[in-house]
Amino acid sequence: xxxxxxxxxxxxxxxxxxxxxxxxxxxxxxxxxxxxxxxxxxxxxxxxxxxxxxxxxxxxxxxxxxxxxxxxxxxxxxxxxxxxxxxxxxxxxxxxxxxxxxxxxxxxxxxxxxxxxxxxxxxxxxxxxxxxxxxxxxxxxxxxxxxxxxxxxxxxxxxxxxxxxxxxxxxxxxxxxxxxxxxxxxxxxxxxxxxxxxxxxxxxxxxxxxxxxxxxxxxxxxxxxxxxxxxxxxxxxxxxxxxxxxxxxxxxxxxxxxxxxxxxxxxxxxxxxxxxxxxxxxxxxxxxxxxxxxxxxxxxxxxxxxxxxxxxxxxxxxxxxxxxxxxxxxxxxxxxxxxxxxxxxxxxxxxxxxxxxxxxxxxxxxxxxxxxxxxxxxxxxxxxxxxxxxxxxxxxxxxxxxxxxxxxxxxx
Length: 412
Description:
Elements: H1 2-14, H2 21-32, E1 42-50, H3 54-65, E2 70-73, E3 90-91, H4 101-109, H5 111-117, E4 122-123, E5 127-133, H6 141-151, E6 156-158, E7 169-175, E8 178-180, H7 182-194, E9 199-202, E10 207-213, E11 216-221, E12 226-234, H8 240-246, E13 254-265, E14 272-277, E15 282-286, E16 293-297, E17 302-306, H9 342-350, E18 360-372, E19 384-389, E20 393-398, H10 408-411
Parallel strand pairs: 1-2, 1-12, 2-9, 5-14, 12-20
Antiparallel strand pairs: 3-8, 4-8, 5-7, 6-7, 10-11, 11-12, 13-16, 13-17, 13-18, 14-15, 15-16, 19-20
Helix pairs in contact: 1-2, 3-7
């Protein structure tokens, strides 16, 4: 009868504004599970990693490789479904961040190792150019050359090229930058994680409640499974703040954008890349080994923005639990995803090419991209790894550049 009393109390409270019935009920069920005969089975791990993207998968493999027993918890039906696959697949060498030396240096620092360890998924044999728009750029040609010289990354001025419109470009530089293949990379990491004896994967699951029990964490999953762990690592990216709150940790100050990556073909520009700096411009480059070109634009890639620490958008509805501010979903398959801006991106980028170059839009992917509010000015994308709780330990890993996956090794 005790369970019915709990439910009546919760029902009474859920009528009051600002109180959340589900959270209250789940927390009570967690604490009283043994009394109400929920048959909650506790499984013990050294680490629980939350988030099944590239950072969560790499962290789980790294920790399991050190002999730890690891649980990997992912909301979606399989790993690698959101930002890890919906991006421009750029293996950063540093060029992209002339106003953030720290981000540029960190990007280049791990590039050689990432390329060496993921050679089968890296496409480096294509022409790659960086250019500066003649109007409105935050960086001029001399600044960009000094920036590249400081980082010791190749940068050669190109005075003439038949594919480009120099009436709109202040300067064009031949550079060296690679692309990784997110699809092949996802297949590789799914296979390694799911086949590792030291990792237990919980897909279609979320941590519903958590509490410290001595020097351990006790967590209740969506499916009723209880996990115990010495350490928890939050690697959920857009859901970072929501997970932090479950563990009583501080919010990350974030902004979130529903973003589009367009995929195009071009007979004239096949196997080439151009990134126009430094402002509201765009980039087009090979998407790994797919044979497609990925296209993004500062002006048109981002459709909606949320300044809340949770990704809160007007396209989320109470009737669709697959995407909520505290548990964002997969935008590419959502019926309420934005109308594509691909034709606007193509027209914007088209002004930097000669009239002989044409692009055809094939399809687009959408996802939620998140960044720290503190980096609005310099456009930096630092890797933030913080210990937010101690005894038991809780870490939050927030990063947006794939070659910084190794930073987790410094943390744990």
